[in-house]
Please model this.
Amino acid sequence: MSDQPLSVVEAAAWAPAARALVVELAARGLVARVLGHGAVRARNPAGEPAPDDLVGAALSPGLNQEVWCRPDWPDRELWWFWAWSGPNRDDPPELEHLCPVSETGLAADAIARVLAVPFTNAEVP
Model:
């Protein structure tokens, strides 16, 4: 992965890929937005506390996941990378390969699995 900023050509390819990923995530019931640092942040509204749960709202970070677009070596092909929290609060995120940006459906499926809340409709005894 490259630590260098995206080139003009890479940035031009990234923007439509990011918008396409947002559309794919919406089709899977997630809310997503494009961020200026070459990333998409997705969240699952099913993981949010109830609107009248003030304590839950104060304590819950929500169910979110960022993926970053960065060029990978050796050919600088653009990839989506998982952005995981670093080991310490002030550490930069740790990036892990997800898939090439051209594989929008694959990326959306993987993000949807990470943000899944499988028992949201189950009754609690």
